[in-house]
């Protein structure tokens, strides 16, 4: 449910600068997003909903990361954050959100591949958030609420793939089409799940969430690595399967604490069936 205008006004009173709300851009179980003017700057305001506390999100780490990587040009410019109040403000970026089929055009898929190749090589010694912490949080939240065998298979797969963290790098971890905006350049939004993780998780997420042909997938991996033969495709397939478990666990937590749409319910069923067939 959207906050009332009175509630919204009360929330933004705590922001130490002028905020003028223009329109609602998005409302989902996790947050509500508004187009605003912040100190006269066209900006985006994200307001958390209570469920964020059950997803293990670290808003302070997210804001710190956005400041660390802002100069590289592939993320939004952060302007203000109040983690306790569930507030994030960043500069508005003019562009169009992609659809799952948009990324297949040669320019976009190559640009994203190059961005990820550069991002995974960044050295950010002050960024300490680890993907394993997210997995452990999901495990704790779901251990008494879901099929124990399903949860165990997902956790076991993660542990088998992450035994060695030497190759872990900064990963976005949620590279679906709605988090990619094409303007003068390609911008990646919503860094709330970003962490140190194996780079293949990002590659797997792109391959699983976009309607890419085989040749487009090869183009993406070439742009990423310079030579796709250096990619371990067998291991990448295992990471692709892990993305299904992680998405399913995320949906299960959303369902546990909030109302999910019929589309999301169908998505859950599809993932459960797919993982059951993969097991067989």
What is the 3D shape?
globular
Average pLDDT rating: 93
Count, helices: 9
* Total strands: 10
Q: Quaternary state, please?
A: single chain
Largest sheet: 5 strands, antiparallel
Gap from first CA to last CA: 40 Å
- Secondary-structure element series: HEEEHEEEHHHEEEEHHHH
- pLDDT under 50 segments (min length 5)? none
The amount of beta strand, in percent, is 15-25%
As a percent range, the share of helical residues equals: 40-55%
Radius of gyration: 19 Å
Which class of secondary structure composition applies to the elements?
alpha+beta
Spatial arrangement of strands, main beta sheet: 1-2-3-5-4
Task: Give a written overview of the molecule.
The protein has 280 residues and is of the alpha+beta class. It has helices at residues 5-12, 59-69, 106-119, 131-142, 148-161, 199-209, 214-225, 233-257, 262-279; strands at residues 19-27, 31-38, 41-48, 78-82, 87-91, 96-97, 169-171, 180-182, 186-188, 195-197. The protein is 45% helix and 18% strand. The strands form 3 sheets. The protein has a 5-stranded antiparallel β-sheet with strand order 1-2-3-5-4, covered by helices on one side. The protein has a 3-stranded antiparallel β-sheet with strand order 6-8-9, covered by helices on one side. Strand 4 (78-82) and strand 5 form a beta hairpin. The longest helix has 25 residues, at 233-257.
